[in-house]
Amino acid sequence: MQATAPLLLLLPLLLSALPAPSHGWGVDGHLMVCQIAQARALPLTNLSLGRLSDAAAAAVKDLLPSYAGGNLSSLCSWADDVKFRYHWSSALHYIDTPDSLCSYSYDRDCKDEEGVMGRCVAGAINNYTSQLLSYGKSASPEYNLTQALLFLSHFIGDIHQPLHVGFTSDRGGNTIDVHWYRRKTVLHHVWDASIIQTADDDFYGDDVSGFIDTLTKNITGEWSEQVSSWEQCGKNQTACPDIYATESITAACNWAYKGVQEDSTLQDAYFSSRLPVVNLRLAQGGVRLAATLNRIFG
Ligand SMILES: *[C@@H]1O[C@H](CO)[C@@H](O)[C@H](O)[C@H]1NC(C)=O
Ligand SMILES: *[C@@H]1O[C@H](CO)[C@@H](O)[C@H](O)[C@H]1NC(C)=O
Ligand SMILES: *[C@@H]1O[C@H](CO)[C@@H](O)[C@H](O)[C@H]1NC(C)=O
Ligand SMILES: *[C@@H]1O[C@H](CO)[C@@H](O)[C@H](O)[C@H]1NC(C)=O
Ligand SMILES: *[C@@H]1O[C@H](CO)[C@@H](O)[C@H](O)[C@H]1NC(C)=O
Ligand SMILES: *[C@@H]1O[C@H](CO)[C@@H](O)[C@H](O)[C@H]1NC(C)=O
Ligand SMILES: [Zn+2]
């Protein structure tokens, strides 16, 4: 917590100072997704609804660097931290879909700006899933599976942020200037961080763990009947990013872009109608990260 506090304070400043597009839930969003997933390893949560299996919890613990102390959430923003060092990875955080179409297709849309196929967040989820499937099968793995775990955990979060699957010409809302209450920002950032931050301030006394607790309670309560359908993947598939990407572009059109223009001021009405969407996507991201790790590690 000591390390995250100054980072959380700095993050909005850094993001608004950078002209470059930001891609991903903010630090809080990623923390929430990973914490929900890993909470499913605690016997305390005790859900028959598919928590992290013992095998998956053990593999995660084994693959995490020792300084993480077995805590996956502490490294769920690692992929953002290395975006510049591993420049090749920056295209792997999102998907650009055709303007105004409100649909996603892997073959049509999963490519980077040079048109290289498979280089998008859905391709990356498939890539790191298949790398992790080799866990325990070789003494000298071809890939660094610690990095594969950290990328996968981050990208399953990202693909649930509706504007990570957004329109090409506005770069998922990165070029749409808006005011969030009185503060100047871009629409993409509203969905990465502002909605979460405002909810956190207004309802949880700026304590993300209270927010996570409420989501976790809803996963076992309010949403429990939907949870097994969230977890489901196609026949025999280990990861199913295409389902999540389609949901995201649909939510982007129905909620994120809807009613927003250049220089819109977004405040209470937008906040209260969109927060349930953010809550749902964070919860689904956490549940599906756990489900995917279970399918990978058995
Ligand atoms: C936990 O699991 C046990 C045994 O499966 C069950 O009896 C108990 O009601 C569960 N507790 C909660 C809080 O769900
Ligand atoms: C795991 O790390 C996160 C982020 O640093 C922190 O908020 C959380 O309290 C940690 N969880 C545990 C069980 O230590
Ligand atoms: C797959 O993973 C490798 C190792 O990190 C990386 O070099 C490659 O760019 C990745 N490709 C995709 C599409 O994720
Ligand atoms: C794998 O990646 C992690 C994180 O970047 C790094 O700390 C570790 O040294 C790497 N392992 C190997 C064998 O290169
Ligand atoms: C949890 O569910 C309650 C009851 O439907 C709802 O009012 C609340 O907004 C939900 N909270 C979160 C964080 O999802
Ligand atoms: C799915 O997996 C099961 C068990 O591994 C196998 O028997 C079945 O043939 C597979 N189905 C398809 C469509 O690949
Ligand atoms: Zn990201």
From TrEMBL:
An example Gene Ontology biological process: DNA catabolic process
Pfam families named among the record's database cross-references: S1-P1_nuclease (PF02265)
Record bears the keyword Disulfide bond: yes
Phosphoprotein among keywords: no
Catalytic activity: Endonucleolytic cleavage to 5'-phosphomononucleotide and 5'-phosphooligonucleotide end-products
Signal peptide, first to last residue: 1-24
Enzyme Commission number(s) from the entry: 3.1.30.1
Tree of life domain: Eukaryota
Family: Belongs to the nuclease type I family.
Protein's name in the database: Aspergillus nuclease S1
Gene source species: Eragrostis curvula (weeping love grass)
